[in-house]
Design brief:
This protein is mostly helical. It has two helices and no strands.
Length: about 80
């Protein structure tokens, strides 16, 4: 598992917890009409999960040369937007 993806997952979970604390009525534990609950996973563990809607969080920054790479792997290639 990529360490950066785990850290990104943890950061998102922390932000969601802050949102829940600030808004006590905010509930992510209830199921939708398909019996599914909200969850946060890192990229390496999401494969095989099916949902009608999936949000992807992409983090990037400067490399050691202080240049910003806009290389998102397969997403940059033809057909990378998914099906």
């Amino acid at each position: 598992m990529g360490l950066s993806n785990i850290k990104q997952q943890e950061a998102i979970q922390e932000e969601i917890e802050e949102l829940r604390k600030a808004n006590p009525g905010f509930d992510l534990n209830s199921k939708n009409e398909n019996g599914e609950r909200f969850f946060v996973k890192n990229l390496e563990t999401i494969q095989g999960d099916e949902r009608d809607i999936i949000f992807l969080s992409v983090g990037f920054g400067l490399d050691s040369s202080r240049k910003l790479s806009l290389n998102f792997g397969p997403l940059n290639r033809d057909g990378g937007r998914g099906a």
